[in-house]
From TrEMBL:
Spans annotated as Disordered: 398-431
PANTHER family: SERINE/THREONINE-PROTEIN PHOSPHATASE 5-RELATED (PTHR45668), SERINE_THREONINE-PROTEIN PHOSPHATASE 5 (PTHR45668:SF5)
Family under the similarity heading: Belongs to the PPP phosphatase family.
Residue intervals of the EF-hand domain: 347-382, 472-507, 516-551, 619-654
Keywords: Calcium, Manganese, Metal-binding, Signal
Cofactor(s) recorded in Swiss-Prot or TrEMBL: Mn(2+)
Organism: Haptolina ericina
GO MF entry, a single one: hydrolase activity
This protein's record includes keyword Signal: yes
Signal peptide residues on this chain, from the entry's feature table: 1-15
SMART domains in the cross-refs: EFh, PP2Ac
InterPro entries xrefs: Calcineurin-like_PHP, EF-hand-dom_pair, EF_Hand_1_Ca_BS, EF_hand_dom, Metallo-depent_PP-like, PPP_phosphatase, Ser/Thr-sp_prot-phosphatase
Pfam families noted in UniProt: EF-hand_7, EF-hand_8, Metallophos
Protein name: EF-hand domain-containing protein
Length: 657
C-alpha cells in the first residue's frame, strides 16, 4: 500500500516524468485473493479500497516511449492483426476480462520458440520472437519492454533481441532470489542497471547517520559481486528460494484457506491407496494446480507442512493446520449452531433398521462419503450441504475406530475401509462400516452428558458390560441392540433395557461392589435417552460408549469435525469480505461503521443469497440468526460491523502460541 502511495506522490510532483501503467494484479479480484484488500482495510478503511480500485482502473494499459518502444505488463496477442489503435480503443475502466486483447496484454509471456502456445498459467498465451518481430514491424516500433516474470538478474533479453523483460522488485518474496533492474533508454540504446534494495532496517539506520551514509549504502547494494554478497547475505547467483518472508507466507496461507474445499477434494482424489498421505511431489502438483500460483511448492513445502516418518505428507493434518477464526468476543454463537444440528439429529429418533438403511442405501454394511453426506443433508438438520461435507469428511474414513477401542463388528459387517477400483483402474470412494461411522458421529454430537461423577461411573459400567458381550460373542453393537430390542420395534424401551441389564448383572462371576436396582437402571436409561422419547434409539445407544472415550483419537477427531463446521462458516464470511462490506455500507449510508442488528442480519442474508445463486446457500438462515443474536452491542444497541470484519483471524496451528 505504501509503495503505491509513494508512486502516486512522485506522479503528482513530476507529472511529465513519471508514468504508471496497469498490470494484471491491479484488479479487484486479485486484490481480494492476495490479501491487498485486507491490508488496506487493516491500515485504512473500506472506502480506501474503492478509491484504489478506481485508480487502478484509470491507469493506462501501455505506453509508447519516443515513438519506438512499447511498454506494457504482460505481452502480445493471439490475433495477428492487433494495432496500437486497437489498444487505445480498449475500455480499460473495468475488471480485466478472461480473454481478449486486454487480458492478453496483462497476462501473456514470451517463449523462445516461434509461434504461439498455451500459457502454463492457464490464461492468455505464450508468444515467440517471430510474433514479436511482426507486431513491432506492423506498428512501426523497435522494442517491446514488459515485466510479469521474475528474472534472476532483474532483466532478460528474450530470444530475437526485440523483447526485454524487466523486473524491478529485488529479493522478491524476501527470498534472496533475484536482483531488481531498471532500463535506461537513450539515443536508441538500452542499458540495464541491476540492484538489490536494502531492507528498511538498514535504510533507517543509514538515514539516522546522514545522507552520505545513505549514498554509500545504496552504492554498495547497486553493484553485483563479492561486496554485494557480503552486504546482502546471499550469493551473487542464488540457486533457488531459501525462505519465505512473512507477507508471501501469509498470502499463500490465505490462498490455501480460500481454496480449502477444492484442495481437500483434489488431495483426497490423488490418494489412490486411501492411506491419508501423499508424496511431497504429488502434494506439490495438487497445490500448484488448485492454487494457480507460479511457485515450486516442493521448495517451500517446509514452510507450509511437515513430513511424516516415511517422508510423506498427512494431507488432512495439513488442511486442518490453517483455519479462519473469530476472536473470542464474537464466538458465542458457535456452540449454539453445533447443538442445533446434533439436537435435530437425535430428535429424528430413527429406529435401528431405518437408521442403518438410511445411511447404507445399498445395504452392503458400509457407508461411503457421499452416502453419508446425502443422508444427513436430507434430514434438514440445520447445516448447509457444504458444512455437512466438511463434518463428514473430517470424521474420516480410516481404519481406526472413533473411540480407539470399539469392538470389532460382526462378521457380516466386517469390512475394513478400503478404496475400491473401478473398471478404468481409478479409485472409487472409500467405505467404512456403518456402525463405526455412527460411533464417530455420536462422539462429535456429544450425545450422552453425565451430570455427575456417579452418573458417569454408572454409564461406564453399562458400556463396559455391553463391550464384554461384544467381545465374548464376536457380535457387533448393532447385534446386541437388536437382542435387547425384545419386541423388534427398532427401539429399546426402558423395561427392555432394565431387564437386559439385570440379566447381565446376575450373570457376573464376581460379586460387584454395588448391585444396581431396577430404579437405578431406569435412571441410567433416561440419561441415555437424549431424545427424551421414553425409549432408546440406536444412535443414543451408541452414544453410551463415548463415556469410555474421553481422550485419544476419538475426541480429537470429534473436536476437529466440530471445528471444521465452524471454520466453514467463518471462512465463507472472511473470504467474501468485500461483498459483505458492500452490503453493510448499503445499510449504513453515513459510513458510521454501526448497524442495527436487523440491518446486520439483512446484509449477511443478502450475501448468502448472492453466494447461493449457483449453489445451495453456504450459511443457513438459522445460523445467521444465532450469529446475530450473539453479537456484542454498543450502548445504543448497534453492531460495530467494522470491528466484526476485523475480528477474523487467519490461524496457523503450527505456530499458534
Amino acid at each position: 500500500m505504501e509503495v503505491f502511495l509513494v508512486l502516486l506522490a512522485f506522479k503528482l510532483v513530476y507529472p511529465h516524468h513519471v508514468h504508471l501503467s496497469r498490470g494484471n494484479h491491479e484488479s479487484r479480484y486479485l486484490n481480494q485473493m492476495y490479501g491487498f484488500d485486507a491490508e488496506v482495510v487493516r491500515k485504512y478503511s473500506f472506502q480506501m479500497i474503492h478509491l484504489i480500485s478506481d485508480t487502478f482502473q484509470s491507469l493506462p494499459l501501455a505506453h509508447v516511449v519516443g515513438g519506438r518502444v512499447l511498454v506494457l505488463h504482460g505481452g502480445l496477442f493471439s490475433r495477428e492483426d492487433v494495432l496500437l489503435e486497437d489498444i487505445r480503443r480498449i475500455d480499460r475502466r473495468c475488471e480485466p476480462p478472461d480473454q481478449g486483447i486486454m487480458c492478453e496484454l496483462l497476462w501473456s509471456d514470451p517463449q523462445p520458440q516461434n509461434g504461439r502456445s498455451p500459457n502454463p498459467r492457464g490464461v492468455a498465451l505464450c508468444f515467440g520472437p517471430d510474433v514479436t518481430e511482426r507486431f513491432l514491424s506492423r506498428n512501426g516500433l523497435d522494442l517491446l519492454v514488459r515485466s510479469h516474470q521474475v528474472k534472476s538478474q532483474g532483466y532478460e533479453v528474450e530470444v530475437g533481441g526485440k523483447c526485454i523483460t524487466v523486473f524491478s522488485a529485488s529479493n522478491y518474496g524476501g527470498s534472496c532470489y533475484n536482483a531488481g533492474a531498471i532500463l535506461q533508454w537513450e539515443n536508441g540504446e538500452v542499458d540495464a542497471h541491476e540492484f538489490i534494495a536494502p531492507d528498511l532496517e538498514k535504510l533507517q539506520a543509514a538515514y539516522a547517520k546522514g545522507p552520505e551514509e545513505v549514498k554509500q549504502l545504496v552504492r554498495r547494494y547497486s553493484s553485483r559481486g563479492d561486496l554485494w554478497e557480503e552486504e546482502v547475505g546471499c550469493a551473487a547467483e542464488p540457486s533457488h528460494v531459501a525462505r519465505l518472508d512473512g507477507e508471501i507466507a501469509r498470502m499463500i496461507k490465505e490462498r490455501i484457506l480460500r481454496n480449502k474445499s477444492q484442495l481437500g477434494t483434489q488431495l483426497r482424489g490423488a490418494d489412490e491407496g486411501g492411506t491419508g498421505t501423499l508424496s511431497e511431489a504429488a502434494w506439490a502438483r495438487v497445490m500448484a494446480s488448485v492454487l494457480k500460483l507460479d511457485i515450486d511448492f516442493s521448495k517451500v513445502r517446509a514452510f507450509l507442512t511437515d513430513l511424516n516418518d516415511a517422508g510423506d505428507i498427512d494431507y488432512e493434518s495439513f488442511l486442518n493446520r490453517y483455519q479462519v477464526r473469530l476472536r473470542e468476543q464474537y464466538a458465542g454463537w458457535q456452540h449454539n449452531v453445533l447443538q442445533m444440528f446434533y439436537n435435530s439429529l437425535l430428535a429424528a429418533d430413527l429406529e435401528i433398521t431405518e437408521l442403518l438403511s438410511f445411511l447404507d442405501s445399498d445395504g452392503d454394511g458400509s457407508v461411503s462419503l457421499h452416502e453419508c453426506i446425502d443422508a444427513l443433508n436430507s434430514l434438514k438438520l440445520g447445516l448447509s450441504y457444504g458444512q455437512i461435507k466438511q463434518l463428514v469428511t473430517t470424521l474420516g474414513f480410516d481404519p481406526k475406530p472413533a473411540d480407539g477401542k470399539s469392538p470389532p463388528p460382526s462378521p457380516a459387517k466386517s469390512k475394513s475401509p478400503s478404496k475400491k477400483h473401478g473398471k478404468d483402474g481409478k479409485p472409487e470412494e472409500q467405505n467404512i462400516p456403518v456402525e463405526r461411522y455412527l460411533q464417530r458421529l455420536t462422539l462429535v454430537a456429544d450425545t450422552v452428558r453425565p451430570k455427575s461423577e456417579q452418573e458417569k461411573h454408572d454409564l461406564e459400567t453399562v458400556a463396559k458390560w455391553i463391550r464384554t458381550m461384544c467381545t465374548s460373542s464376536g457380535k457387533g453393537i448393532a447385534d446386541i441392540f437388536k437382542e435387547w430390542d425384545a419386541d423388534s420395534d427398532g427401539f429399546i424401551d426402558y423395561e427392555e433395557f432394565i431387564q437386559c441389564c439385570i440379566q447381565f448383572q446376575d450373570g457376573l462371576e464376581e460379586e460387584a461392589d454395588y448391585t444396581y436396582t431396577e430404579e437405578d437402571f431406569e435412571e441410567i436409561a433416561k440419561v441415555i435417552d437424549t431424545a427424551k422419547a421414553g425409549r432408546i434409539n440406536y444412535l443414543a445407544f451408541l452414544g453410551l460408549f463415548q463415556v469410555l472415550s474421553e481422550e485419544g483419537d476419538g475426541k480429537a477427531r470429534a473436536h476437529m469435525a466440530n471445528q471444521a463446521v465452524i471454520e466453514h462458516i467463518c471462512s465463507t464470511i472472511w473470504a467474501n469480505e468485500v461483498l459483505l462490506s458492500k452490503a453493510f455500507r448499503l445499510f449504513d449510508p453515513q459510513q458510521t461503521g454501526l448497524l442495527a442488528p436487523a440491518d446486520f442480519h439483512s446484509a449477511l442474508a443478502s450475501l448468502n443469497e448472492v453466494l447461493s445463486r449457483d449453489d445451495e446457500a453456504p450459511i443457513t438462515s438459522k445460523q445467521i440468526d444465532e450469529l446475530v443474536n450473539a453479537l456484542p452491542l454498543d450502548a445504543k444497541g448497534k453492531v460495530n460491523y467494522k470491528e466484526f470484519m476485523n475480528a477474523f483471524e487467519v490461524v496457523d496451528l503450527a505456530v499458534e502460541v
